Amino acid sequence: MTEDDRLVQRAFAVIAPPAHHYYPITIAHGKGTEVVSIDGRRFLDFSSGLAVLNLGHNHPKVIQAVKKQADHYLHAGGIYYSEATVTAAEELTSVTPDGLDMLFFGNSGTEAVEGALKLARYTSGRQAIIACTGGFHGRTMGALSLTSSSSAYRRRYHPLVPSIYHVSYPACFICSCGMNAEACGGKCLEEIERLFQRQVPPEEVAAIIVEPFLGEGGYYPAPRTYLKGLRKICDEYGILLIFDEVQSGIGRTGKWFCCEHAGVKPDILVTAKAVASGLPLGAVIASTQLMKKWDSPSHGSTFGGNPVACAAALATLQAIKEEGLLDRACVAGAKMVSYLQEVAMQNPSIGEVRGMGCMIGVEFVDEAGAADGRLCQNLIDECLAKGVILIGCGLKRNVVRLIPPLNVSDAELKQALGIFSDALVELTRRKS
């Protein structure tokens, strides 16, 4: 038994099954895109720790900031004001869309979603929330009530939070109406209007929450016209628009936030994952006008805005700016899409390549065009054996996510994509 195997067995003995990991690999240390396991195996991490490590592992500026802060104090806990926390808040609100200039720090994406729901209900005086089928917003009870990327997440937890309504997300490749994006004409938006007519009047809806780039549900970027249509509906009925950018934010798509590609500004923005390069931090961001309606006893967090996490966040945001990583993500994304589309032209098992920046999805289908989750997982396993870490997503687990750090090198891209295409050729050859 290897050292890797022994650690995994120890984990199984003391860590509950919900916390078990994707693959039985360990980490001894990481630098940039590379991870080295306890027994010395090297991997290119194209999962970025689940879209968290936008600067890669152990970016020197982040490590330096964490060490410096740790020398002074580790915790403020709502008792003391911290320079690190305030400066990180200033830096984060400097890169959000105009007018989103006040925030509340929590510890994670799901906490940030919970905070956004509370903010919307508290300030609007309304209770109903509309979410999208296929969305993933977290696993605590409020966030779980929104999540519908898989019924497995919701099993045995009912009843969930009431007054949550679901409408279709424009996942155009698997359109429930059998339409393509060009012919659609806004069917998903029409579904919201039907919801108003038959189930909940718009004046009782506090918020609509949506991922501008659907993550766990299958890696589908929402069409610009859809996001603009949501903004119009929300403006018409006085509904708050919440964008969940937990996975797609902090430069992942080549802009600070994915919604900027569509030129649509939400009323409330939720972010987490990459904001502190692996330390626990999330944020609910809105206008000062809205936030000041959220009275101080109505929400709180002991560990939210932890000074060490905020020092990491400040260093992360500054490094993205100083190193030009938004542009770098766009260049890397264009190379990935171009390469993968060429692979798709030679291999009909790839149904679609989609995405932007360093957030790319590759959807696998069988001969009949149905989801091929088995091929997808076999490909992931084959790539792992060859030294590239990938993860899947989608209801049928038939979509591979390629989410390398924003500063992934051209050589690393070439190596990982070569392994991907070679593995696919081998698998399809065996299949035939």
From TrEMBL:
Question: Which SUPFAM superfamilies does the annotation name?
Answer: PLP-dependent transferases (SSF53383)
InterPro entries, alphabetized: Aminotrans_3 (IPR005814), Aminotrans_3_PPA_site (IPR049704), Class-III_PLP-dep_AT (IPR050103), PyrdxlP-dep_Trfase (IPR015424), PyrdxlP-dep_Trfase_major (IPR015421), PyrdxlP-dep_Trfase_small (IPR015422)
Q: Which cofactor does it need?
A: pyridoxal 5'-phosphate
Q: What PROSITE patterns does UniProt report for this protein, alphabetically?
A: AA_TRANSFER_CLASS_3
Record bears the keyword Nucleotide-binding: no
GO MF annotation terms: transaminase activity
Task: List the Gene3D superfamilies.
Answer: Aspartate Aminotransferase, domain 1, Type I PLP-dependent aspartate aminotransferase-like (Major domain)
Mind telling me which Pfam families this protein's record contains?
Aminotran_3
* Keywords assigned by UniProt, alphabetized: Aminotransferase, Pyridoxal phosphate, Transferase
Annotated signal sequence is none
Keyword Plastid assigned to the entry: answer is no
Matching PANTHER family = AMINOTRANSFERASE CLASS III, LEUCINE_METHIONINE RACEMASE
Q: Which family does it belong to?
A: Belongs to the class-III pyridoxal-phosphate-dependent aminotransferase family.
Entries under NCBIfam families matching the protein = PRK08117.1
Q: What is this protein called?
A: Aspartate aminotransferase family protein
Task: Supply the source organism for this entry.
Answer: Geomonas anaerohicana
